[in-house]
Amino acid sequence: MGKNESSRRRFVKNALALTAATVMPTIITRKASGHSMPESKLVGASERVNLACCGIGNRGANIIRTLYNTGLANLVAFCDTDMGAPHTEDILKDFPDVPRYQDFRRMLEEMDNQIDAVVVGTPDHSHFPICMMAMAMGKHIFVEKPLARTFHENELLIKAAKKYKVVTQMGNQGHSGANYFQFKAWKEAGIIKDVTAITAHMNSPRRWHGWDTGMTSFPGGKPVPETLDWDLWLAAIPYHEYHEDFINGQWRCWYNHGLGALGDWGAHIIDTAHVFLDLGLPSEIDCLKATGHNGLFFPQSSTIFFKFPERGNMPPVEMTWYDGVDNIPDVPEGYGVSELDPDIPPPGNGRIQPAKLNPGKIIYSRELTFKGGSHSSTLSIIPEEKAKEMESRLPEVPRSPSDHFANFLLACKGLEKTRSPFELAGPLSQVFSLGVIAQQLNTRLVFDRKSKQITNNSAANLLLQGYPPRKGWEQFYKL
User: Fold this and answer.
1) pLDDT in tens, 221-266
2) pLDDT tens, 78-90?
3) What distance in Å separates the CA atoms of residue 127 and residue 138, rounded to the nearest whole number?
């Protein structure tokens, strides 16, 4: 038995055994009884990829439809902790014959041989266990951004993807759009070079804006909807009582469940600079502003500073993140109009509201200044006079051969490589995790990039790993 095969079998056997007594019936099947686990495999070039989908409402439903509409995939299983919720009705009506599950572990166990890849569109806090079990079973993974909630979870997912040799993709879809290919071409041609500072901003209203900043405990005590498995929805995080302000996207408001505006939008704004400038992990993170600071939910506005050291022949970079409707960064002279990318998908609670300064970034190099939006928005050189002067020297930018969703499916077939695999998406998500720790504690952090430890604050260093997993979920953290 090969090393990977043995570790897969052991992982799934232990995961099912540990959870059986507390949250699910005992499952004695081929894998739980000790038989060998399959290696991951690519799907045949002429075949469709069989997808199992976890989280089928709101954004999850959008992802499922987009993947299916490529014509490259079959939908073989649906999983959601609330199959009776209003936001799951439409997708279930459209695909009435797809088998339905409430527990992802049971789905993976029972449907194993019929699943090639798993799609994860659940709250941030539950990304990790679903991805870990699926990868250990040799399944390819598409997961919404951010990759995971804690620094440690991201670290384990990076290692697991390498260990189990599966195809992975994080859902920051701009990585398959015009911005990705333009940034790459301009960097390779020396147009983008010697970057020293980045301003990243997301100043649209957020769900928690206007909340009582004096809140000292979670709301709770509401009856759990009959169709919702609340214990399973919580997954590995500490138990707390149900309240409607934790579900249907409201989970983004809480440190326990998500990564706020930074984790939600940073993956669409900071992503190309992070990968093509090889930023890696910061050496310093400082929460410069946290209006209405509260240890339970995110600030009404925040400014977070990141310092990245020299990388090879590239100078240090200082990046500053701004969120909050009245926390607008200064823009350089000649900035011009801030446009909203039409490719941005609408949020679950309605349309994106245009802000005073729409989501995007300003990139400062020693010679040039660039402005850009989010997602697939391309960069512009500012001011306009400088852009016209540079026009003849700009390289031709290749068109994307596939969108982000087709890219994943084609990679599952061995025809392309994913553009946002865990080896790239993981460190980017770790940047967000570090920013959120500074935000939650409203403090400055010094981070050792080699040991991957916070060296000036013991409480913050504990938050790299977060709360110990609840009983029955420990095995997912034992890579």
Assistant:
1) 899 999 999 999 999 999 999 999 999 999 999 999 999 999 999 9
2) 999 999 999 999 9
3) 17
Instruction: Write out the two tokens for 19.
Output: 């959870």
| Ramachandran sector of residue 34 (left: φ over 0; alpha: ψ -120 to 50; beta: rest) | left
**Per DSSP, which regions of 243-347 are E strands?**
284-291, 301-308, 317-323
Q: Is 375 helix (H, G, I), strand (E, B) or coil?
A: coil
d(Cα 38, Cα 358) in Å, to the nearest integer?
Answer: 47
pTM of this prediction?
0.92
Structure tokens at 288: 């410069």
- Tell me: pLDDT of 479 over 80: no
Tokens 């149900």 — which residue?
A: 242
- For the chain, give every domain's residue range: 3-173+470-477, 175-211+239-399+422-463
CA-CA distance, 282 to 305, in Å (whole number)?
Answer: 10
Tokens representing 213?
A: 């900043």
* Helix ranges, 38-85 (H): 59-69
Superfamily of domain 175-211+239-399+422-463: Dihydrodipicolinate Reductase; domain 2 (3.30.360.10)
| C-alpha separations of 466 from 208, 377, 434 in Å | 22, 34, 12
Q: Thinking of the domain 3-173+470-477, which architecture would CATH place it in?
A: 3-Layer(aba) Sandwich (3.40)
How far is it, in rounded angstroms, from Cα 406 to Cα 68? 9
Surface-to-core class of residue 79, CB atoms within 10 Å of its CB (0-12 exposed, 13-18 middle, 19+ buried) = buried
